[in-house]
Amino acid sequence: xxxxxxxxxxxxxxxxxxxxxxxxxxxxxxxxxxxxxxxxxxxxxxxxxxxxxxxxxxxxxxxxxxxxxxxxxxxxxxxxxxxxxxxxxxxxxxxxxxxxxxxxxxxxxxxxxxxxxxxxxxxxxxxxxxxxxxxxxxxxxxxxxxxxxxxxxxxxxxxxxxxxxxxxxxxxxxxxxxxxxxxxxxxxxxxxxxxxxxxxxxxxxxxxxxxxxxxxxxxxxxxxxxxxxxxxxxxxxxxxxxxxxxxxxxxxxxxxxxxxxxxxxxxxxxxxxxxxxxxxxxxxxxxxxxxxxxxxxxxxxxxxxxxxxxxxxxxxxxxxxxxxxxxxxxxxxxxxxxxxxxxxxxxxxxxxxxxxxxxxxxxxxxxxxxxxxxxxxxxxxxxxxxxxxxxxxxxxxxxxxxxxxxxxxxxxxxxxxxxxxxxxxxxxxxxxxxxxxxxxxxxxxxxxxxxxxxxxxxxxxxxxxxxxxxxxxxxxxxxxxxxxxxxxxxxxxxxxxxxxxxxxxxxxxxxxxxxxxxxxxxxxxxxxxxxxxxxxxxxxxxxxxxxxxxxxxxxxxxxxxxxxxxxxxxxxxxxxxxxxxxxxxxxxxxxxxxxxxxxxxxxxxxxxxxxxxxxxxxxxxxxxxxxxxxxxxxxxxxxxxxxxxxxxxxxxxxxxxxxxxxxxxxxxxxxxxxxxxxxxxxxxxxxxxxxxxxxxxxxxxxxxxxxxxxxxxxxxxxxxxxxxxxxxxxxxxxxxxxxxxxxxxxxxxxxxxxxxxxxxxxxxxxxxxxxxxxxxxxxxxxxxxxxxxxxxxxxxxxxxxxxxxxxxxxxxxxxxxxxxxxxxx
Amino acid sequence: xxxxxxxxxxxxxxxxxxxxxxxxxxxxxxxxxxxxxxxxxxxxxxxxxxxxxxxxxxxxxxxxxxxxxxxxxxxxxxxxxxxxxxxxxxxxxxxxxxxxxxxxxxxxxxxxxxxxxxxxxxxxxxxxxxxxxxxxxxxxxxxxxxxxxxxxxxxxxxxxxxxxxxxxxxxxxxxxxxxxxxxxx
Lengths: 825, 185
Prior knowledge:
The complex is a heterodimer of chains A (about 800) and B (about 180).
Chain A: H1 2-10, H2 14-27, H3 31-43, H4 47-56, H5 62-74, H6 78-86, H7 96-103, H8 107-120, H9 124-137, H10 143-150, H11 157-160, H12 166-172, H13 178-189, H14 199-219, H15 224-234, H16 247-252, H17 254-269, H18 274-277, H19 288-297, H20 321-327, H21 342-352, H22 361-369, H23 371-385, H24 388-396, H25 408-414, H26 420-439, H27 448-478, H28 482-490, H29 494-497, H30 500-512, H31 516-529, H32 537-547, H33 550-563, H34 568-580, H35 584-597, H36 602-614, H37 618-631, H38 636-648, H39 652-665, H40 670-682, H41 686-699, H42 704-716, H43 720-733, H44 738-751, H45 754-767, H46 773-784, H47 789-800, H48 802-824
Helix pairs in contact in A: 1-2, 2-3, 3-4, 3-5, 4-5, 5-6, 6-8, 7-8, 8-9, 9-10, 10-27, 12-13, 13-14, 13-26, 13-27, 14-24, 14-26, 15-24, 17-21, 17-24, 17-27, 20-23, 21-22, 21-23, 21-26, 25-26, 26-27, 27-28, 28-30, 30-31, 30-32, 31-32, 32-34, 33-34, 34-35, 34-36, 35-36, 36-37, 36-38, 37-38, ...
Chain B: H1 13-19, E1 22-24, E2 29-33, H2 42-45, E3 54-55, E4 62-74, E5 76-82, H3 83-86, E6 91-99, E7 106-112, E8 117-123, E9 132-144, E10 152-153, E11 155-161, H4 176-180
Antiparallel strand pairs in B: 1-11, 2-4, 3-10, 4-9, 5-8, 5-11, 6-7, 6-9
């Protein structure tokens, strides 16, 4: 019955699953059945049902607890979730090690969840600790790393994303054969590891691992749930078997599963690249170094089965069935194939290599050649055999070194199932083969499975290196080291680069650098590639807002709101669209909707705050920005918003403080520096203001406003010559900006060169007829009121007939422009 | 404006809004009427719908009072009147008064309308040609076309000049290049 339920779940037939699970639970009131039922509810999207169900009954098993905690977090009952996981406030808090012990393989996820709870409840230190621990347990998890970056910690991607210890590896890949771990460790990360010294040791280790897995499994009752948690994440098609079938026969599938789960793991976590996905078929000759080289070379080979692939050792983890058929001896398979298919290959290998034979590499080749035929069989077996092995593995994977070295023979004896036995043996043999190949390149009697392990290791290592790069890029972005981030991320292999996530990060980096044109280009690329992606789109909408591309923005917002009405990003885009059209009330409505959809989305609050500022409702704006900061203290836009409000209210020191806080978070924003400069000037700290503005210009020479403000500060300090110089430069950069002429006019006025001043004012008004006529007119008025009659006629001329004057002015302007230029030079 | 020519219709105030130089602030004020027929009151006057209107129901002068919470700068008043649909209900003489409260009102403008057929923009400026700052505005309909007793008014909008949101006491930027760097959003 359990098998049927899991199968239904795997086929997303939730109603069937729920019905059957309910019957099972009614029949057997065991914790396992309870867990199964709760899982069915949770997966079908009804977290509240799972929550109430699990709450109503005591849950002692770790998986029940984990699921209950997850439901609590989803329903925003953070305190409860925390209490379940770690004992809460009243009881003694469990330490992380306790948690690790209790939850075993799912400890990494548990810690990640706990970290999330801590961060949301403002206990960032504890949260980051949890995330670190979770990452150390399972470096394949990206979200703890991401969360760490976002809360401002700087986790080191190199340290995090590596498969260092046996323990780590095994715990994160419950289905992996431990041999893989040992092999991997040895060859890749720590050459100094003792383990790999001799093939013998490796074999022993393998045996140990196998044995431990055996023993652990046998000690397990057929409890599908535990492994399910891990395998569920790792391989979506895991269907845990119910109890019943022979333990050992299932165990035999361990080995095939290991390959699969490993690959399933990375597959679940990130897009697969050839760099780690390609498990090359290698000829047995090369040793360690070449092996490494081989698969790094393979990164250039894309996920095509490849005859073109460099031939490597005869490790053949073939990851896609289709590919296998083409493979022959030189198959390189990208990991993007279903991990499941790896195992069939492994199995194929093991099988075809014959039971108990110490396979030589030559033997392997027929194995490899055989796979296409074997594969269908394997895959079917795989499907049926499902995750019983995964289950077992997960349980076992508390990979501490098992104390005993069991006799391999005993293991093979215990495997009584027909097919299973050869598998086991073969797996051992593969282990041997692997280790030998790895350690020395000796062509020895190594079982095909070792190849598989090495391949898996290679795959994992490839994944790790990818994650490292992406981690570095993401970390740089979160510390607003944007140029660096762009650099790192551009160096990713091109098929990864052209994915939505990477491009969105790069787009965001350009956005933070205020290079809106570039950002827009990248984001439109994202839209082209992945038009179902909403996550980065709010930044895109703001970019379009800055560029004032209303058509593109309205298209974007329409598309997003049509696609996903429950995402805050879509409503933010819609709000931005209306804000650009200056329909602020509607924009406010949409931003409020975004907040309703997701109250934990900081950017919606920020945008709402900006709208309130535009409608002059400063109190509401203050409240909004404060909300944004409450949700995400590193949201520097909100700090900026607060600073702006205080500036408007002329509370300059408060404004400066807030801008400074924003700057601390994002030190490379020239716009921020510019604002700080202006505020400092308002506070009469003109020297500092000039310094700040100089810094801003150094960071981003393309920012015309910085120059403009520098000119205005110089003007205020009566350094007219330098101000003029600045403004002239600015005129070259942005010739159509009326403000520039306005300021030049003011400078000339101060310098007493009235006709130049007048000319510039007229140009300014020309460029901005509707805009700030008042100010410009005032400037002219003030100039002329105390003066004699002669200029007055000019004044009347200018002020009286704006429209008619414009045309004549443009002609006059042209001639005068030449005149001015000749004057100045 | 005592010419026999008809009052030309002004531009749609939405255009004004789109320039970003003004903002409609009627929502920040309390509106009241001297009298109205049931179903034809303030809501119909402020509903952005030119089909619905306010119909007064008392003696002249009919008053529309707009009271702000704080002293606000008002740049323009826009009134929609249409002789073709309202005929004798169309206002012909409108007086605009501002002040701090009901007892403190002072007339600043008087308009004569001759068969208007659209929006009428009334710039409100003080003696120095700047937009007025006031707590209260009263629009008084002193006379209607064809000496009608009651009046219809279809829509009224109040505009305030937009403050510069950028730093510094400068007028607005005109180019996108400047505007891009003006703020962080």
